[in-house]
Amino acid sequence: MFKSAQAAKRKVITFDDDGETFARGNTHKGEHTSPPASTTPHTVNGELNKTLVKEHTVTNTTTLSNGSALSAVSSASTDSSEQQLTKKQKRKLHHQGDVRPKKLANKEPTTDAMIQKAKSLKKHRQSLPIYSARDVIIQEVKDNACVVIVGETGSGKTTQIPQYLLEAGLAAHGTISVTQPRRVAAINLAKRVAEEVGTPIGQKVGYSIRFDDSSSRESLIKYMTDGIMLRELLSDRLLLRYSVIILDEAHERTLRTDILFGMVKSIQKQRQDMIAKGRKDIQPLKIVIMSATLDAEKFSEYFYNAKIMYISGRQFPVKILNTVEPQADYVDAALVTAFQIHQEEAPGDILIFLTGQEEIESLEKLIEEYAVDLPASVGKLIPCPIFAAQDSATQQRIFEPAPQGTRKVILATNIAETSITIPNIRYVIDTGCHKSRGYNARVGIESLLVEPISKSSARQRMGRAGREAPGLCFRLYTEDSFEMLEEDAIPEIKRCNLESAILSLKATGIENVTEFDFMDRPSKSGLLRSLEHLYALEALDDEGKLTEIGTKMAAFPVDPPYAKVLLQSEKMECTKEAIEIIALLSVDTIFSAPSSKREEANEARQKFTSLDGDHLTLLNTLRAYESVKGDRDWCRDNFINSRHMRHVMDVRKQLVQFCERAGMDPKKSCGHDLEIVLKCFLAGFFQNTALLQPDGTYKSILGGGLTVSIHPSSSLFGKKREAIMYNELVFTTKHYIRGVSALESAWLSQAAPKYFGQRQA
Ligand SMILES: Nc1ncnc2c1ncn2[C@@H]1O[C@H](COP(=O)(O)OP(=O)(O)OP(=O)(O)O)[C@@H](O)[C@H]1O
């Protein structure tokens, strides 16, 4: 690796300049080429933005593609749907346009500035490729119970379609909800659409993510994570407050989205049946499935042969450049490429896709180190990390503009891969890798391994450029390697722990989860293992029915073992401490340890370290933090991440509310008798235990006695205790455990007599 910016400059990565340019439409090689973005003035307006409606032959499909004005409608079916929109009907639509916004108009504190901003964005909205398909989309959604929409990244699906449906009156009987797999997307899309609508966030347009609800009963468009939608199902089994549910980024096939597919499909049917039986108080539910990279036929089939609409056309071209040679070290290659771009390409920020926090932080340091040597004429290069373990406020920093004369380089995991528009991104560097979560149902162990991404992911990554101007996408792998990638990732439901999902299904009244209408069936062993664990947690009874404990557990916004801890804490009179520790565990870590000051940081941490392990160490730290009222200087001096601590306080507040709602007293404390807290955690984590072996290693109780290693970040790293409990076991380079505390082995059978009794039998 090079040691200075000059050296960085000398080392060069060669990219194949014959790379295709994705000027529009789908992403098949060679289909839509145009000259390199950097050398071609983009001739998008007036050509690429136009949208043609034409018939797709085989299935019940409408293709909306580039090349001609909307008036050049050629298909019989879409012809008629467009022609059906006569002036009179258009007026009617306009007239129908939602009665509620009018009522709201008086109440909303819409400022002139907001209205002006919305006006200025109107032109942009109308320049989006999707705009010329507006009326057809509205008509198709009105005419069909379910529609699948496939449109190029950046074409305007996520921000525009909900607004079109709102404008067409489809929120008259309920909110239009848009689900997102990631919270950062939910927040930013809502903010953008609120701006476009011209109202403050949280009113007409809102969002809801775990521990942060910025929506109201008056919200007509609501962006939310798929997890929140599942939670809402617990209190509104027919999702009656929604008139339209848009399941966005459906290609991601997260576990929760897959469960939602089945749930909304069934809810739509139930509502239809009720209406057929004459229920005047029930309205039909519309379902829209969206993505840029989707196996549309499969989704259509699942949703009763739903109508498919293809919308092609992207705003700006993105040229793809593959490396000529495979890269042995993609982090190094990303570093070199970033400096190459910075020194040779036109202004515009860079977005690099990496696999995880550690990699991001190490590249951040390298960039900072080398950027110091850059000549003044080049301007600064400022790294800006984003990964899932950050709190939402930290994640928002990537959206802040870089100071004038500097260039921002965002270092992201695949958290930034779909949905979001990060202003000023012109260059994407795709390492071609991500961390993929796996689950071995036989032994019940999760793994997190670096693996190649799918073609679909590569296209989404590329699509983060070309949203405000032409872009370049540097793929740090060869074109042949791209061709060898899988088309789509394996759905999470086939490779994940299913406990949360099963608990949600049971809590919404689905007794026999094995017969649930899954789009892709999870493995039998995965289902059985999760059912067994829920039984051991006493969430299910001998017949697999949800118990009272299980019902209560499902109401908490945390994974089943944590929910069990909260419930147990009431009996053991340590709810205060249980809430606090769970809140502390909700962030990746509350400690900061810059590599240049690692020793100092370790020393500072000793002050809070408990001999009993991480749970009580965290609690000690919280107590110290509270005693100084969260003073920032104190945090800095003690290497505590103050942002993460504020997030912890926020989560604590929310958990307190959940406990109160469940009729518990969140102030119940065990005082100084902290052994009780560890016993309480054991009620949820009795399976996550390991025993010390004569050779000094630890063997897990789960998975037939695996050798597990305490993670170096744990306060028990290198320590020997008779028995230990952990919150997390993940296979990376070895079986690492995190969130570790010491136990007495005698506590085990007391904590879960059912489980340990069975095992001994
Ligand atoms: N926060 C924002 N700031 C600036 N421009 C934005 C923002 N959000 C959206 N846009 C603009 O609106 C366009 C459409 O964005 P939208 O998210 O609706 O596209 P999409 O088709 O859903 O893309 P994807 O498939 O990548 O999610 C973007 O290309 C960009 O030009």
UniProtKB/TrEMBL annotation:
Biased composition (Low complexity): 33-43, 65-81
Annotated ranges, domain Helicase ATP-binding: 138-312
Transmembrane segments: none
Annotated ranges, domain Helicase C-terminal: 334-509
Catalytic reactions on record: ATP + H2O = ADP + phosphate + H(+)
SMART domains linked: DEXDc, HA2, HELICc
GO CC annotations, alphabetized: nucleolus; U2-type spliceosomal complex
The name this protein goes by in its record: RNA helicase
